[in-house]
């Protein structure tokens, strides 16, 4: 006879159910929303056999519309056919292909640095680079609204993490000044910020930030994920317009937003790159980017060089802001392609987002922990598939919702 079936406790299922219920009660429960995309539009419910709903994209990060560009897709297809669907190994084993080297060289030239490394994602970059540069006896000073990958990288590094108020460089300098006179502190200092903040669409004073980093002998990490391809004369981002120290400054970004592909990058000095190859665990222990993603990013980079499409996108964003302002809406102080409408309560933000979906517009509600719990919002993220007419229609529908956002205040 077989052994009697062992009886297991159901405690795990109980606490999971309790955790899910608590999220639902706070308006923070999430579920995957399956969408198809064609021609800059999203189509929902097709997978469930329900009538398709067409949604205009006011939410994705495909800022320049390159994810669906024919040349980008063709480059990806050709690379997959020639080199396979996977790099099949980490870069330090057998996963470094010639296409990786070529893309890294082009990115470094584009962003004006000596070297570049591509990672599996933007999250892999920040969470791997920071622990490679600082450790237990060091300190990281990060903007309060920095991306989770930067905060997680700082935590993984075991360095002491200090967060300064959003874009408050006076406070940052005060914190650095105190650290500089501490007799017991002899470690390295790293300052981390974003050039365009993903949830607010605003930017720090990068010129002053560079001066502060130099004054206190700090490493400066600037995440340009939402700026490259959009800002600058050749889409090089915002830091490229500032005179910075190339030996102690790193630019991190993604290939998955304006460049319409997948992966992350860090541009820096040759010596810094050499160190990261040897110490960045997310680079050392991850399979290299698949050839298709590398080729797609390469093709997209060529298109950004040729046409500087970011100028048109920022013009569209300026038009939308004018329409919103004329209609009495409050929004953030930034001048980028990201426009936050602060709703307040999470469940309220979900209601507004649902209303917009029912009327043909995809604008995702951003809630805690992505943003503070009392500052849930609609994060409008524009792209070049949209027109001024689309913006007009969006504001009309938004106004008919009966909702009004809060005035954006301090964090």
Features:
411 residues; Aspartate Aminotransferase, domain 2; four-stranded mixed β-sheet; 39% helix
Report on this structure.
The chain has helices at 11-25, 70-83, 98-111, 122-133, 148-157, 169-180, 206-215, 270-279, 281-284, 291-307, 310-326, 346-358, 388-400, and strands at residues 35-38, 41-44, 53-57, 115-119, 139-143, 160-164, 189-194, 219-223, 249-254, 264-268, 338-344, 361-362, 365-366, 376-381. It has 411 residues and is α/β, with parallel strands linked by helices. It has two domains: 37-48 and 55-64 and 309-400, Alpha-Beta Complex (Aspartate Aminotransferase, domain 1); 70-306, Aspartate Aminotransferase, domain 2 (3-Layer(aba) Sandwich). Strands 4-10-9-8-7-5-6 form a seven-stranded mixed β-sheet, with helices on both faces. It has a four-stranded mixed β-sheet with strand order 1-2-3-12, with helices on one face. Helix 2 packs antiparallel against helix 10 (291-307) and helix 11 runs parallel beside helix 13 (388-400).
């Amino acid at each position: 006879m077989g052994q009697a079936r062992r009886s297991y406790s159901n405690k795990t299922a109980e606490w999971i159910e309790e955790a899910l219920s608590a999220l639902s009660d706070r308006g923070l429960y999430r579920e995957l929303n399956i969408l198809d995309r064609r021609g800059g539009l999203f189509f929902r419910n097709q997978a469930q056999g329900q009538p398709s709903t067409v949604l205009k994209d006011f939410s994705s990060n495909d800022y320049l519309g390159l994810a669906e560009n024919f040349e980008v897709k063709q480059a990806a297809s050709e690379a997959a056919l020639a080199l396979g669907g996977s790099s099949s190994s980490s870069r330090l084993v057998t996963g470094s292909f010639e296409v990786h080297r070529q893309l890294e060289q082009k990115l470094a030239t584009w962003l004006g640095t000596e070297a570049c490394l591509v990672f599996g994602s933007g999250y892999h970059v920040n969470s791997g680079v920071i622990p490679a540069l600082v450790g237990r006896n060091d300190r990281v000073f990060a903007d309060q609204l920095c991306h989770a990958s930067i905060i997680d990288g700082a935590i993984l590094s075991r360095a002491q993490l200090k967060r300064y108020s959003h874009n408050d460089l006076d406070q940052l300098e005060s914190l650095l000044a105190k650290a500089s006179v501490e007799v017991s502190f002899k470690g390295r200092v790293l300052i981390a910020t974003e050039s365009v903040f993903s949830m607010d669409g605003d930017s720090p004073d990068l010129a002053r930030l560079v001066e502060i980093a130099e004054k206190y002998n700090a490493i400066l990490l600037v995440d340009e994920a939402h700026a490259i391809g959009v800002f600058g004369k050749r889409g090089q981002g915002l830091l490229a317009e500032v005179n910075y120290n190339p030996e102690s400054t790193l630019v991190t970004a993604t290939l998955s937003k304006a460049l319409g592909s997948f992966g992350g990058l860090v541009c820096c000095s040759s010596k810094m790159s050499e160190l990261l190859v040897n110490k960045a665990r997310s680079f050392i222990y991850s399979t290299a980017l698949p050839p298709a993603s590398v080729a797609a990013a390469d093709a997209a980079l060529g298109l950004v060089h040729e046409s500087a499409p970011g100028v048109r996108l920022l013009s569209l964003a300026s038009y939308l802001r004018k329409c919103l302002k004329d209609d009495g809406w409050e929004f953030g102080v930034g001048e980028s392609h990201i426009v936050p409408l602060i709703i307040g309560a999470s469940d309220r933000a979900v209601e507004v987002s649902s209303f917009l979906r029912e009327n043909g517009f995809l604008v995702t509600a951003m809630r805690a922990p992505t943003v503070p719990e009392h500052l849930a919002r609609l994060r409008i993220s524009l792209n070049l598939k949209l027109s001024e007419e689309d913006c007009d229609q969006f504001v009309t529908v938004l106004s008919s919702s009966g909702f009004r956002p809060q005035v954006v205040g301090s964090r």
